[in-house]
Amino acid sequence: MPSHLFADRPAPQPPERGTVDALISQTQRLRGDVDAVRRDTVPDATDPQGRWQRALCELAVHQLDDLNTHLGQLRAGAPAGSLHDGGRDARSAPSRPEPQRGSLLSRVGSAEWNLLTDEVTWSGELYAIFGRDQAKQPLTLDELPALVHAEDQPLLTTMVTDCLVDGRPIDGEFRIVRPDGEVRTVHMMGEPVLDANGMTASMWAVLRDVSELRRSQLAVRESQESLQRQQQLAETEHRVAVELQEAVLPPWRGSLRFPHGSPAALDLAAHYLPSSSSALIGGDWYDALQLPDGDALLSVGDLTGHGVTVTSGMAMLLGALRGMAIAGSQPGPLLGHLNQMLDTAVQPALGSAVCCRYDPVHRTLTWAQAGHPAPLLFRGGTGRALTPPDGVLLGATSGAVYEQAEERLEIGDLLLLHTDGLVPGRDGTAGAERLLDLAPRFAGARGAQECVRTVVEEFGQTEREDDACVLVAKIGAP
């Protein structure tokens, strides 16, 4: 059992003034630093992390203000008219300046209940906390529960009984209901005072209004829980998007060759580069598919946005593209059908794409584009962008028509298809020029996979705002 306080105990000595002054200065500097961080945290109802950071700053400032006031009380010493100055209550104590409403001093009050004389002493601050008129008598221990919230009355009764009967210190919180109906949360700490015979002579307590503190703590807890939920949702969405993307994009790794047995067969390789500024998966895709008639389908595209919704939209487009290509649709009409799909979708979206159909017998490339960078053709150590036929973004307008173009290819030619995020920080023209500068290195490459590796080495380590895809096809597989 904790040691009891006796009525004749010596008064504690105040700390040295210089030490307290130093602590006050440190607290004030820290408070200023935290307040600066709080001001820099712009409130945004749509940003759980920002709400959590601001709530933490609010709580820290609140607690530092309380600490600074506590230290100020230590430096000033015991106020005149304290509870132990002759047992006077707030009504008979000498007047002193009223604490500012909302300050720590206005939220901390004290009381003493003398069991021998039935005298009760309340400080003026305690009257203010309970919203009680100071002209009225302070409440006895039997009367005090009348102002306590009905659900918390048993808790108060237990704490007081344990203190008076078993000598246990009081340390607990309960809610009070003020005369105006406002509910406040009060933290009560107290101990029994024993006489020379070890009998309980009185009980003293310090009561603090912690309503604002608890509200700040609740705001921190709720904002933290909201942030955790958002992070969990983001992680789940990222995992689902990755799984969906992996299920949709071609499963082959390294290089791919088709059609087999043709001197003009394609040597293929591709790579996906994720965004470095977003944890979400975008809507970029690449695809290569051998068609029933021996032709090859090559395509890359980009659906705007990030996340599961965009990835699922990309999967829908890619599935439709494959199906229509297998059914014999040419690139131009095929893009027209994809445009209609996006234009009539429940969640409208925009996308870009380039679709190529390669005939290995005649070595002709028939292609169309929808607001997408043109394929790059490398031949004999130099490169150029193919002249694009007309075509608007997918989903931009109803009934759009997509023109087609044809290009005669030669053995050894290299075709590079890419999405616009491949070269970070560059517009379409500048990005294409950077890729065309790789022509001498492509000329010395042994195959498509080595060319893709060159592109990744050149641009893969650069910070990029968007994800990207690159697809390389070399004519005449070794």
From TrEMBL:
Region feature (Disordered): 76-105
UniProt keywords, alphabetically: Hydrolase
Highest taxon in the source lineage: Bacteria
Occurrences of domain PAC (ranges): 170-222
Keyword Hydrolase in annotation: yes
Pfam families: PAS_3, SpoIIE
Protein's name according to its UniProt entry: SpoIIE family protein phosphatase
Species of the source: Streptomyces luteolus
